[in-house]
UniProtKB/TrEMBL annotation:
PROSITE patterns: AA_TRANSFER_CLASS_5 (PS00595). It comes from Hartmannibacter diazotrophicus. Belongs to the class-V pyridoxal-phosphate-dependent aminotransferase family. Its EC number is 1.12.-.-. The keyword Lipoprotein does not apply. GO terms for biological process: glycine biosynthetic process, by transamination of glyoxylate. Substrate binds at R348. This is Soluble hydrogenase 42 kDa subunit. PANTHER family: ALANINE--GLYOXYLATE AMINOTRANSFERASE (PTHR21152:SF40), AMINOTRANSFERASE CLASS V (PTHR21152). The modification N6-(pyridoxal phosphate)lysine is found at K198. It comes from the Bacteria. Its cofactor is pyridoxal 5'-phosphate. Coiled coil: none annotated.
Length: 396
């Protein structure tokens, strides 16, 4: 028996649900790429990205996914043979490092458990040992959707400063921009990048990058620059140069509408608060489910759990796949399997982007029903705990 007939609820950690008004904004004819309306769209989106990233630096929009934005950040600042340090805390900083390796950059990984955030003390110690400053850049993810971790960027910046190290500080915000506070300039971050398909509520296909003064200076001597990613070319006077050719018009129409939703209709501070409340509600539900002793949080320290996704561990072979499949095929809610170290041993509940309390509580109820259906017994109700928490935080 299936109860999935009806509108499917997408609760994966990206891509996220695209708002109807964003889809509607894209449903229109193409326009002139050289002048007029599209030029204004570009200018306003680049300006709004400065607000989102918290920077007075330069911003760039690419027809690319997050992996493309990774390459843009690297190729504009690094040279073949340069060395960089990857701060492991999940899967995606490692992926960024793999991109660097493919470009001819020497990559060193500061290893860390899949269940913990980056250790700033270890960062400081490694940088102090690099007395000749061979490390040219440091790569880290603010929130990793494979592990569910949130890294403390301020503490990492403090570690870099304490070591007196000049390496560029580069941050992946794919699963955090628009979701958690991010202040690039205040944190001394030199390069930040993101994809538009998660907290920015746009269909996949746009990668965005912000570059501060030290990154722009490094760009002047970087020898990995190619025409498509090149910041200098994209800073050119002609509009088509912003995209190295024809702009991705309809994605820009949607992106413009999504930015209006985030920055003007809801407001960035309100979006951060909404995500924090929904994330904590999810964690309270999961805490109840863990009383089964068959499920556990992947991230051990509650303070290190991000607000975009909650990652749950399952040690029994095949259990996570049964949960994910049943939740979708029987109840119509799509959550994700674990990846990386949790491949086959975990599931992930996304709660970012265009999601509200009703969406979340419905999803949690479906997951809880799934747990009953697959024979996982626990004390009480996670959904009740989530609802009780949200009610107390929004009391009228």
């Amino acid at each position: 028996m299936t109860l999935r007939f009806g509108r499917e609820l997408l609760m994966i950690p990206g891509p996220t649900t695209v708002p109807d008004v964003v889809l509607q904004a894209m449903h229109r004819p193409a326009v002139d790429i050289y002048e007029g309306e599209l030029v204004a769209y570009t200018d306003s989106c680049l300006a709004d990205l400065k607000t989102l990233f918290g920077t007075a630096g330069n911003t760039y929009i690419y027809a690319a996914n997050g992996h493309g934005a990774w390459e843009a950040a690297l190729s504009n600042t690094m040279s073949r043979g340069d060395r960089l340090l990857v701060l492991e805390s999940g899967r995606f900083a490692l992926g960024w490092g793999e991109t660097a390796s493919s470009l001819g950059i020497a990559v060193e990984v500061l290893e860390r458990s899949f269940r913990k955030a980056v250790d700033p003390g270890a960062v400081e110690a490694r940088l102090r040992a690099d007395t000749d400053h061979a490390i040219k850049a440091i790569l880290v993810v603010q929130i990793d959707t494979a592990s569910g971790v949130r890294n403390d960027l301020a503490a990492i910046r403090a570690a870099i400063d304490a070591a007196g190290h000049p390496a560029l500080f580069m941050v992946d915000t794919v699963a955090s921009l628009g979701i958690e506070p991010f202040e690039m300039d205040a944190l001394g971050i030199d390069v930040a990048m993101c994809g538009a398909q998660k907290g920015l509520m746009t269909p996949p296909g746009l990668g965005v990058v912000a570059a501060g003064p030290r990154a722009i200076e490094a760009h002047k001597s970087a020898d990995l620059v190619t025409r498509y990613w090149d910041w200098t070319f994209r800073d050119g006077a002609e509009h088509y140069m912003k995209y190295c050719g024809t702009p991705p018009e309809h994605l820009l129409f949607g992106f413009r509408r999504a930015l209006d939703l985030l920055l003007r209709e809801e407001g960035l501070a309100n979006a951060h608060r909404r995500h924090a409340l929904l994330a904590e509600a999810t964690r309270r539900a999961v805490a109840v489910w863990t009383t089964s002793n068959r499920l556990d949080f992947n991230i051990e320290n509650p303070a290190e759990r991000g607000n975009s996704v909650t990652v749950v561990r399952t040690e029994e072979p095949g259990l996570s796949a049964r949960i994910v499949t049943t939740c979708h095929d029987t109840y119509g809610v799509r959550i994700s399997n674990g990846i990386g170290d949790l491949q086959g041993h975990g599931f992930r509940i996304g709660h970012m982007g265009h999601v509200n309390a009703g969406n979340l509580l419905g999803a949690l109820a479906s997951v809880e029903t799934t747990l009953h259906a697959v024979g996982i017994a626990f004390e009480g109700s996670g959904v009740a705990e989530a609802a009780r928490y949200l009610g107390s935080e929004t009391r009228v």
